[in-house]
Structures are given as structure tokens and as C-alpha cells.
């Protein structure tokens, strides 16, 4: 059997040691990945990081979805390649010019030896379904090789998206954790006798927050105000005065009875809770993939133009978040000249698009996915077809795409995500799910302990009653634990 015949060898004629070695390697890698995710989950649960644990579960769901997609492509690929269509149907909406397609009987075939060319061509036809469809004077709807490449692309896209999302949150979290020193300084000032004895009258227009956000550029012109917000996202997007003002506004609105509330810790937990939504690939994102795969037509340079979508959206989101901070400063400065105590901003959903802060998270999710789609598509084409492939496009279109992709990733990590983490807390409502979850866990733990104590007490009372030296209880309902509070809709205040 010639070298070409080995391509069609089945398991019936494959050495058993080859099958065993390949299976061992695949199983070992799969088990190692599964154990890694398992121990990561145990660590997150042990350290009581429930939001990150849920994000890990979301990653597992995505991997399961990838496995199911892989299974479908593998099981049905032989049937797909036997779907035959007229050749004219396959001449429209091509990503490359049809004249660049190598011909099976052209110059390439002339370099092959006469003895091996027909045999190789027959095997290639069988592998692509051409042998089945050629008998009907038609061509296969999707070749076996194309189905295999599509399979790889979907896998690469999901992995790159999850990786980029994790990197964005990690680097963004590093930036946010730098603000912890501001939180610690506030706690220290609250216990300082010098700060306590200071007069409690604040001159609004002399406050750093107002001077930076209201008295400077944009006080008299809305256009200049938006321009200042646009530029502010690139340098010092959140200053210490911004943090102090927004923190005090949040605490005054949502937990006035607990001025010692750790706003920084709450903000980190809220961001971790949102991360489980960002890391997933929702159904509408898969629709986005299908649409742009459809629009990848020769001459349109689709993947060059769509690179500007996350770029423009990211700048719009950053500008909006900066402008919200400026709006909060404007509201205070326009109403007050001096206030008793600390300057207080008033959080409100009205500052966000359509009064819904969650739209910002949706846009960040879409931005990260679309940027990952761009980068994944580039590297997939590079590895699969080569840098000179017609799908890759010309160099003058490739370089800007890569520069935009890197810019979006860096700006989103170090500016937009930290901005989102703090500004999204300026909505009308605080993140109830965090408090509901932790309070519920605490109540359940307390209930279980009370139940154990109750069981021990009943046993002791029963033994004592048998001896006749303990009066019987008139009503045992007082020892029952009522857990109805867990089903209430009213969330606990964040001052617990």
C-alpha cells in the first residue's frame, strides 16, 4: 500500500499500541484539565469566593457546550459532506476569489508522478465527499476538511474569549485593589481625633472632587464636558477625590447606619459577581459569529471594519462612565455652596443609558467577545492557512486590526473595567444578590447548628424524663427554627 493509502487506514488495520498511546495521551490531558478545574473550585469555595466559583462553573458550561458542538460536528460530518448541491450555488459569497482556488487538474497535478496522481485524486475526492456527489454531477455542500477547520475555529474562539475575559478581570482587579489604600486611609481618618475635631462645614466649590469635575473644563459647555470625559478615561480615570465622593454617596444612600462600611470590599465582590456573566458566551454572541461569518465576502474587508466596533463601543462606554461622575459633581455644585459634614453625591439610575446600569455590563461583555473574535480569527487563519492566505487580507488591513485589538484589551483592563466597577455602584439600587447570598448562607449555617443543639437537648430531656426528675415542656414550638426569612423578597441592608 502506498503512502497515500495510509491516509484511509481504519482502526481495523492500525497497530494497537498506536491506539493505546493516543487514547492515553488524550485521556491524561482531559483528566488533568478536569482535576485542575475541580481543585480550583474547591479552593474558591474554601476561601468563600462564591462569585468566582460561579464564574468557574460558567467556564465548565462553556467547555461542555464546546464538547457538544465537537460531538455534533464529528458525528454528522460524514452526512454533511454527502449533501450535494449544484456547482453554481458554490460560486457566490466566497471569502476568496474563485480564480485563486487550486485546480485538481491544473499545473499542480502536472508535477505529480503519473502513477500516484489518479490514486491521490481519488482519495481526496472520497475524503471531501466529491466521489459521492460527482456521480450526480454536483459538489458537496461542505467538504470534510472545511468542516474540520470550522470545528477548530469554534474551539479557538471560545478559548480565546474565556482567556481574554480572565486576563481583563485580573488586570482590572489589580488596578482596583490599588484603591484599597484609599479605603484604609478613610478608616484611619474616621478614628483620628484631629479629623473628628475639625469643623463639619464643607465649602463645595473648594472641594477637590468639584474642582476637578465641575470648575474645570466643561462647566459652561456640554460639548466641552463630553470632550473632557472622553479624554479623562485615558489618564487618571478615577482619582482619590472621585473615590471618596462616590464612596460617601453610596454609604449615605444605602447604609447610612454603618459609616464604617467597607465599600472597596463590596465593590470587589460585586465585580466578581459580574464576572460570571462576562466570561460566558451567550446565544446572541453566537448569532454575532454567524452573521460575520456570513459577511466575510471577498473584497468587503469585513474583518477590518468590524474591528472598529469594539473600539468605538469601548470609547463610548468609558466616556459615559466618566461623564456620570461629572454629572454627580454638577448636581452637588449647582445646588449647594456649603454643606454641613461631608460632600454627598446622590446615586441614581437616571444617569445611565435608558436608566439601566446593566446595559454597561452588556456592552463590556460584547466588546470583550468581539475583540476576542477578531484576535482568534486572525491567529486561526495564520496557523491554518498561512499569513499569505487570501482570507487574511492585505497587510495594510491586518496591522490596524492587531493594533486596535491590543488597544481595546489594555484600555478595557486598566481603565474601563475599573470605571465600571465603581460607577455602576452609583445606581439607585445596590447589588442585592451579594448580601442575599451571604446572609442566606449564614442563616442556614445557624439553623443547622441550632437543629443539632435542639436534637441534643431533646435527647437529654428524654433521658431526664425517663428518670422522672424533669418536668415536660408545655410547648416545644419555641425551639423550632423558622427559616421563612430566606424566602422574603426584601433584601437586607448592606449594613449587616
Question: Please, could you describe this protein's structure?
Answer:
It comes from Lithospermum erythrorhizon. One of its GO terms (molecular function) is calmodulin binding. The protein is mainly α. The protein has helices at residues 16-46, 50-80, 107-110, 117-127, 130-134, 144-177, 180-190, 193-196, 208-213, 222-232, 240-254, 263-278, 283-294, 302-305, 308-335, 358-385, 395-423, 432-467, and strands at residues 84-85, 139-140, 201-203, 338-340. The strands form two sheets. It has a two-stranded antiparallel sheet with strand order 1-2. Strands 3-4 form a two-stranded antiparallel ribbon. Helix 1 packs antiparallel against helix 2 (50-80), helix 6 packs across helix 16 and helix 6 (144-177) crosses helix 17.
Rg, Cα atoms, Å: 31 Å
Structure summary, number of beta strands: 4
Mean pLDDT: 74
Structural class, please? mainly alpha
Low-pLDDT residue intervals, each spanning 5 or more residues: 1-7, 104-128, 469-493
Number of helices: 18
What characterizes the major β-sheet? Answer: 2 strands, antiparallel
Oligomer: single chain
